[in-house]
Amino acid sequence: MRIMINSTQVSYFTLAAYFDTRHFKYLFFMILTSLYLLIICANVLLIVVICLNRSLHEPMYLFLCSLFVNELYGSTGLFPFLLVQILSDIHTVSVPFCFLQIFCLYSYGGVEFFTLAIMSYDRYLAICYPLQYNTRMTSNKVTMLTSLVWFYPFLSNIFIVYCLTASLQLCGNNINKVYCDNYYIVKLACSDTTVNNVFGLVHMFTVIFGLIMLILYTYMRILKVCFSGSKQTRQKAVSTCTPHLASLLNFSFGCFFEIVQSRFNLNSLPNILRIVLSLYWLTCQPLVNPLLYGLKMSKIRLVYKSLLFRKKM
C-alpha cells in the first residue's frame, strides 16, 4: 500500500532518467551548449532579417517570426535546465520550478502547433484564392490570429498546470524523465484524477483534432489546385509549402513518440534511446525550423544575401 503524501509536503521531484555518464557528462554538456547557441543564433538571425526588411512584412513572414520567437522560448525552457542537471550529481528540481518548466514546455508545444495550423490556412488562402488574399488576410486578421496562437496555449496550460495538476495529492516524487512532465506527475497522484483525464480527452478531441482537420483540409485543397493549375502555380505551392509540411511532419513525429512513451511501458528500449526520443520534439524542432525556412524560402535567402553583400561592400 502506498503512503499518502499531500502535494504541499512534496518540496522537490527527483528526475530518475539520469544515469552516471562519468567524464562523458562534459562531452554531453559541450554538445548541448553548442546546440543551444546554434538555435539562438539561427532563430535570432531570421527574426532580425524579417523585422528589418519591409519586403518581408507580409502575413506569412510575420507568422514565421512568431514561430522563431516560440523556438527561442521553448529551447530556453529546456536547455539551461538540462545543462545544469548534466553537471549535477543530484538530479532534483523544486516543485515550483518543475511546474514552471511544464508550463513553458507545454505552452511551447501548443503555440508551435497553433502556428503551424494558422500557417497552413495562410498558404491555403494564398494558393487557392490569390486574388482575394490581401482582402482576406488583412493586418488586423494577422494580429488577431497571432494573439490567439499565443493566448490560448498560455491560458489553457495555466489551468492544466496550476489548477489541475498542482492540486493533486501525490504518492511519490520520482519522475522517470530528464525534465519535468505533466503526465508523469499525474501518474504519481493518489487523489482522483478524473477531472485531469476528462479535460485532457476533451481538449484532444476538440482543439487538437480541430487543428489537425484544418491542416488536412487546407492541404487537400492546395493539392487539388496544384494538380489542376498551371506549372507556375505548382512551383509556387511547392516552394512555399515544402518547408511548412516538413516542419509539421517533424514536429508531429516528435510529439507522437513523446505521447507513446508517456502512455505505454517502453522499458524494453535502452534508456539512452528513450531519453533521445523524449527530447527530440524539444531539441530538433527549434533548429530544423530556421534551417528549413532560411534555406528553402527564396525571399528570405535573397534578403540575407543582400545583407551579406552590403557588409562586404
Can you walk through the features of this model?
This protein has 313 residues and is mainly α. It is 75% helix and 3% strand. The chain is built from twelve helices and three strands. It has a three-stranded mixed sheet with strand order 2-1-3. It is globular. The termini are far apart.
Class inferred from helices and paired strands: mainly alpha
Q: What is Rg?
A: 22 Å
- Sequence stretches where pLDDT stays below 50 over 5 or more residues: 1-8
Largest sheet: 3 strands, mixed
The count of β-strands is 3
Strand residues, percent: under 5%
So how many helices?
12
The secondary-structure element order is: EHHHEHHHEHHHHHH
Helix content range? over 70%
Globally, the shape reads: globular
Gap between N and C termini:
75 Å
Strand order of the largest sheet: 2-1-3
User: Overall mean pLDDT score?
Assistant: 86
Summarize the structure.
This protein has 313 residues and is mainly α.
Q: What would the keywords be for this entry?
A:
313 residues; mainly alpha; 3-stranded mixed sheet; 3 strands; 75% helix; disordered N terminus
Annotate the secondary structure layout.
Elements: E1 12-15, H1 24-52, H2 59-76, H3 79-87, E2 92-94, H4 95-128, H5 133-136, H6 139-165, E3 174-175, H7 182-187, H8 194-228, H9 231-263, H10 271-283, H11 285-296, H12 298-312
Parallel strand pairs: 1-3
Antiparallel strand pairs: 1-2
